[in-house]
Amino acid sequence: MSNPAASDTADQAVVIGASVAGLLTASVLSAHFDRVLVVDRDLLPSTPEPRSMVQQEHHVHLLLQRGKLIIEGLLPGLMEDLEREGALVADLCLDVKCHHAGRWKRRWHSGITAHYCSRTLLEHVLRRRVSRIENVRIAAATDVEGLIFDETNRRVVGVNARERNNTLREIRAALVVDAGGRGSKAEQWLAGVGYGAVEREQIVTHLGYVSGIFEPPEGFRADWQVLLCLPKLPAQKQMAVVSPIEHGRWMVTAGAWFGQQPNPDLTDFHDYLAKLPIPDLSEAVRSARLIGALKRYRMPGGLRRRFDAMADWPESFLAIGDAVCSINPIYSQGMSASALQVDAIRPHLHRVKGRRDACRELQAAICQSVEHPWQQAAAVERRFEGVGDRPSLSDRLRFAYFDRLLVASAVNRKAAIALLRVNNLMAGPETLLGAGMMLRALLAPVGARFSQHLGETL
Fold first, then answer.
1. How far is it, in rounded angstroms, from Cα 95 to Cα 284?
2. Strand 156-162 and strand 96-100: pairing?
3. 447: pLDDT strictly greater than 80
4. How far apart are the C-alpha atoms of 348 and 130, rounded to whole Å?
5. I want to staple 4 with a disulfide (CB 3.0 to 4.6 A). Which of 139, 341, 396, 443 is the partner?
6. Is 213 among the domain residues?
7. What is the CATH number of the domain that holds 314?
8. Of 117-121, 376-380, 384-388, which has the strongest mean pLDDT?
């Protein structure tokens, strides 16, 4: 990874942050600019090692089907690269043994798959691939301290960046994209030159996760590749997952809303798993060997910055990724939401150089592209008492319907795959409202024997 030189080029794009969002953005910008410079404050190891400034990478991550298809379209062969490095491909219905809301879900071949590996490996493979693009450079240990505006404050013309040796440089650019994550300073930078406050949507549920990498017991055999326990919301608030990662290991994450996660202590971790509604996770993990230390990650909740609602927007500047929308990691939407944002602007980037309001329009497209995953997560978490406005009658009816549909998905293949498609951002929630799906929801609570018959025939 190279260090940036001061540049006054008129055809350089600068991306703040070598995150998934930042790297994907750099890949699409490379077709429109002579040079693309990605700057990141971290050291960016050349091997698959955890980054010191990315705490959430120590926990289970999942790239949803829609995100996977977008990334593969941008960087063909990336999924094969992951497989060569040890990622395991699993069918998200057939290979996942899931206990959800008090019942085991039946398992069928769905054709909806995921590449299971650590976030560390995924970012390493993605960073390696993007760094090989001829006109892209990645500068490590470089912290962006602010935007450089022109004399009118109407256009961003570069960034002030501090390098590892404490040298502060001006890096000029025709476009600056902030992919600096949830901790983005874009709000402060824009407010500092008169653009006003940014509207925020927040869902405060005090999320917490504790995770560890485990070596399975020697000779361990199971009829699952992924083992998952999800709560019946809003009464239950704890979940856990055993997820395969590279080199035949497991990553085990135990998480909860409102601070009910375990402490990063192995005894407490095992006690937490033992108190889940099923013994399966506890039995599997208790006989496994912890590699390294347990890691904790906490966040207040979901955060969406409505840059699209601002009265004004500077030219030659965009914000993307978690800087725009940060969702509870339990829904595995973060990386795919970033891919959706990049995909939303990719066909329109040629307009950046020629149209005055191009960045304002692109920023609106970025913000709108995450409407589905944001609302999907928000609808679940607003069921908790005291989170958001009190549910209306229509809200309560909708909750009741989706609860019934969830029951149906445990025994009915079509309902299971329909929900899986929505959860993987392959279809909108309106696809769950057809007459056939409503019939399945209506018949969901029938006796176990009849439910099993429905699972084969409906």
1. 16
2. unpaired
3. no
4. 21
5. 139
6. yes
7. 3.50.50.60
8. 117-121
Give dist(CA 183, CA 370) in Å, integer.
18
301, 327, 361 — which closes off a domain? 301
Q: Indicate whether 246 and 284 sit together in one domain.
A: yes
Judge if 258 and 230 occupy the same domain. Answer: yes
Rounded to whole angstroms, the Cα distance separating 239 from 230 reads: 5
Record the tokens describing residue 419, joined without a space.
């929900």
314 and 334 share a domain?
yes
The answer to whether the peptide bond before residue 314 is cis (omega within 30 degrees of 0) is no
**Residue 407: which of 448, 357, 457 has the closest Cα?**
448
Inform me whether the pLDDT recorded for 7 exceeds 50: no
Report the SS3 class of residue 98. strand
State which residues form the domain around 288.
Answer: 88-116+204-301
Say how many domains are in the chain: 3
Report the C-alpha gap between 62 and 114 in whole angstroms: 7
- Choose the final residue of a domain: 301, 317, 347: 301
The model carries a pTM of 0.92
Write out the two tokens for 330.
């339990």
Mean predicted confidence (pLDDT) in 82-91:
96
Has residue 5 been placed in a domain? no
Average the pLDDT over 91-116 and give the result: 96
Structure tokens at 75: 């960087």
Classify residue 8 by its DSSP letter: -
Residue 458: closest CA among 417, 428, 424: 417
* Residue carrying structure tokens 């992951």: 82
Same domain (yes/no): 49, 149? yes
Same domain, yes or no, for 62 and 141?
yes
CA distance 232 to 151: 56
Q: Are 301 and 263 in contact (CB under 8 A)?
A: no
168 with 40, same domain: the answer is yes
**One domain, residues 45 and 178:** yes
| CB-based burial, 401-424: b 16+ in 10 Å, e otherwise | bbbbbbbbbbbbbbbbbbbbbbbb
Tell me the CA distances in angstroms from 208 to 127, 171, 211, 267, one per residue in order: 28, 38, 10, 18
Single-letter residue type at 147: L
Q: What is the tens place of the pLDDT at every residue in 255-305?
A: 999 989 999 999 999 999 999 999 999 999 999 999 999 999 998 999 999
